[in-house]
Amino acid sequence: MAPTIDPPQTVEWQGKKVPVWSMQTIDYALLLSQDPGEVDKVLKACLEDGYFYLDLQGLDGRRMLNDQQETLKLMHRFFEAPVEAKNEFGLISSHLGYEPVGSRTGAFPGAGTKDGYEMLKVSRDEIQMGSPKVPAVIKNSGDLEVLENTIGSCNTVTKVILSALSTGMNLTGAARYENTHRNDRPSTTTLSMMHYLPSSVTGNKKIGHQKHTDISSLTLLFSEQWGLQIRPPGTCGALEMGFVAPKPGCAFVHVGDSLRFASGMKMQSCIHRVVPFNPTEDRYSIAYFLRAEDDTMFVDSEGRYVTAGQWHDEKFKAFTDPPLWQAMAPRSMILGGMQEAGEDDPQGEPEFLSAPVAVKEGMQEIALQA
């Protein structure tokens, strides 16, 4: 049964009113204690929605929030460096290295756009081995410690969620999700740091991040700025993408394809994209993609038996394919087999609002700092 969603707030964006969808908020401290009520709550969010806020403001979560802030400082130093320094190694592999702006399809494939962000990806396996391939501009003891701390915190937080979901699904022994996400086994788990550039730099042909579902089992996402859009699943009346509001002290959590497949398609994989809410600003986000061990087997949405490593490689290639090739690929590639209704990609060049916008709830208008 599709979830019941209250009428959303709306925001003026690109000349029309766009929904601002709500999310359940999960308390990390209660989840860490395996509180039965919170376990049921997070399981319901993953089965019905595929996304939720994770409240990290308690004692056990504040370390993660501190690591997030230190990572933001590192990102500013890195992305302000000359492109030659950032691109010292290039993209070493699909989950490790630097990607310049315009490497993938953008938020509006109908308008022929490329993406509007640059990204640095640091592999958890590389950090764990103690010899990470990162550009010299951040390869110093202080910055490496920041990366180690952040990856360690993200790994702990996502494993707590994964354990709660195993418990909620009544899984035992080898069937528990944690047993395909062991720290000592190779995986493409990675920390991705993204910098979305202002439109004055990128122009109208390099915009945002295309609509997709994540490859990962779980995505732990931090962004203090607007721009993330989601499409609620099922037949809930979500005929267009809608924004989700950043929530102080909280991370966004998305279910990815791998966990959806591992659950026998019971969990929802979150359809989302990133667009320039305020095209004049630099936007920063941090995403930790917890992925299953490379040799983990599951049945994908096309009915194929594939490994987690194979799924990662195939979908990453699809991300970098031109829109025409993406359109010819199975829907399981970009959207993980998730169903959607409605069309929200403009066919021409988007005309972005440069002025501050407002969210409306009923007759009350609340000013936002764009």
Automatic annotation (TrEMBL):
GO molecular function, one term: metal ion binding
Fe2OG dioxygenase domain sequence ranges: 186-292
GO biological process, one term: small molecule biosynthetic process
Keywords: Iron, Metal-binding, Oxidoreductase
Sequence intervals crossing the membrane: none
Signal peptide interval: none
This protein's record includes keyword Metal-binding: yes
Chain segments annotated as coiled-coil in the UniProt record: none
Short name of one Pfam family: DIOX_N
Family label: Belongs to the iron/ascorbate-dependent oxidoreductase family.
Protein name stated in the entry: Fe2OG dioxygenase domain-containing protein
Organism: Podospora appendiculata
